[in-house]
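Q: Convert this sequence to structure tokens.
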Amino acid sequence: MTTLSVPGAPRKRRRFSPEFKAQILEACLQPDASVAGVALEHNLNANLVHKWLRKAKQAATSGQPDFIPLPQPKSSACHSGSAERIRIEIPRRQGSVIVEWPLSDAATCRALLRDLLQ
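A:
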């Protein structure tokens, strides 16, 4: 079936659901994936996908404070080793990513996380 366009008629923009956008962005974040390749696979313009990536990054970093104070757990003899470490678990489809860092070097951990999230 061929689609005829009427000269001068406004072209309708396609709308994409947040779920579809999330699926595309997840595909772009896979190892060895290229934004252009993912866009081509889904009949999208690569510039549009780059725009979605920028917006997702801005949404993830905007409005969030750099530091969120957490209550300190009461240390006990059986948990004294774990209280001296920072442990962050990030759930992912392929399996959780766990970052453990010495509490004495919290500033370096914070800098690493900030760099990773930018």
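The chain has two domains: 16-63, 79-118.
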